[in-house]
Structure formats: structure tokens, C-alpha cells
């Protein structure tokens, strides 16, 4: 098994098959993986709650920006 596929599995897209949807789905999967990592680090005491919140807020802003860029293309 490829290490990359183990840590970051990719799932098939089942929605309407157009470039915008597929592109946003990719961003959404990456967002989900990063949220999972941050949550795990915070739960295990490796990251403070404040730092986790800052990182989550930053990721959310990035996702909103990506959505806006994709929809305006």
C-alpha cells in the first residue's frame, strides 16, 4: 500500500461531473484531512486549544477563498 494513499485517501466524486465541482471536491477533501489532523493533535495535547482554533479558522478562510475563486472562473 502506498503511504500517501494510507494517510490521505482520495474518494471518488459522485456529483455532477464538471471541472468546478471536481476541483472544489478536492479542496474539500484536503480541508477535511487537515481538520482531522488538527483535531487529533489538540485532543492528544500536542496543540493548544487556541492554536488549534487559529489553524481551523485559517483553513476555513482558505476554503471560502478557494470556493469563491472556483465559482468565478
Any overview of this molecule?
- This protein has 73 residues and is an all-alpha fold.
- Helix 2 packs antiparallel against helix 3.
- The termini are far apart.
Topology:
Layout: H1 3-7, H2 19-43, H3 49-72
Helix pairs in contact: 2-3
Q: Span from first to last CA?
A: 36 Å
Shape: elongated
Taken as a percent bin, the fraction of beta residues is under 5%
Mean pLDDT equals 85
> What is the CA-based Rg, rounded?
14 Å
Keywords:
73 residues; mainly alpha
Question: Short description, anyone?
Answer:
The chain has about 70 residues and is mostly helical.
